[in-house]
Amino acid sequence: MDYGKLPDGRPVKSFILKNTHGLKAVILEYGATLASLETPDRNSKLADITLGYDTLQGWLSNTSHFGATVGRYANRIANGKFTLDGKTYILATNNSPGGVPCSLHGGKAGFDKKLWSGRPVERPGASGVELAYTSPDGEEGYPGTLQAKVTYWLTDKDELEMHFEAETDKPTVVNLTNHTYWNLTGDPRQDILGHRLYLESKEMLPVNAGLIPTGKTEEVDGNPFDFTRERPIGERISAPVEQIKFGNGFDHCWVLSGEKGVRLAARAYEPKSGRVLELFTDQPGLQFYSGNFLNGSAKGKGGTPYRFRTAFCLEPEKLPDSPNQPQFQSVVLRPGETYRHTSVFRFYTRPSD
User: Fold this and answer.
1) 315 carries an active-site annotation
2) What is this structure's pTM?
C-alpha cells in the first residue's frame, strides 16, 4: 500500500505480513525497514515490540537505523578506509566514538536511507516481501555495482525470517544486517534492563575507545560480557571495567559458537510480558547493543521519546572492521560469487515465573 512520497516525489510502499496466530509485520521500501512487529504477550495481548516511527517523515529523520537494513557494510570500518587487491578505498566517515572517526553502517547515506523496490511473495505457511536495491559503483566510496536483495518472511511458526543476498561486478566488501530495536514489554517508555539475555558465545571482541575491535578475542567466562547463562541485561551493564566504559554499556560483537549454518545465537526473555525472542543465524558474529546512545531526542511512535536503554539490538553479521583485520573471516565479494545471510527471529511466550 502507499506509504508516502520522498522529497523528490518518488512513492514509498509498505507491505503488511500476517500469520495465522495474529502476528503482524509492516515492511517499508524505504531502507528495506521492519517498521513494526506485533506479537502477543502471555495473556494473548498484541503489542508492537519494535522502535520506529508512525509516518514516512519520521523515518526520513531516522539517525538511529531503527528497523533498517544496513549496508553496504554493517558496523564499523576503522578510519573510513580499507585496502582491497592493493588499492585503498576511502569511505565516508559518519561516526566518531571516543573521538576516533569511522564509517558506520555504510556511511552518511547507507542502505537504510535508500529506496528499495519491493514485491509481495508467498509460499506455503508464510507471507513475505522481496526488496531489491542496486548500489552503484563508488557509492559512499565502495567499489563495484552491487545488486542487493533482502526477503522477509512471516511464518505460521511465529518466525520472522530475513534472507540477504548480493552480487557484484567488481571485487568489494559486503556485510548486511537488520538493525531492529527491540523492547519485549511492548512499551518503549520502559527500559530493557530487566530483560533476560542468553548468548550462544564464549568469546567477544574487545574494542578500543573508538569501538573498533583490537583484533583479539577474549573469553567471557565470569566477566560482565558472560551471557552463557540467562541473566538480566542490567545486572552488570555498569560494571567498572574499561570495555563497558568504552561503550557506555554493551555495544560489542560476540563470536558465535556452534557449527556453520543457521543455529541458535541468542535468546531474550521479558518476565512481565512473558515474551521470548530467539535468534538463529548463519553469521559468525552478533553485535549486542543496549541502546546506550538513545537520549530522548528521537520522538517515535505515538510521539514517545526514545530514552536511554529503552531498546536493544541483536545484529547478526560478519565481524566489525573485517576489511582491516586479516585474521577475521573475509568479507570480500567477487564477481560470480553470491553473498548470502540468513537470520530467523522466533517468538513465543513463557508462563509466569
Assistant:
1) yes
2) 0.97
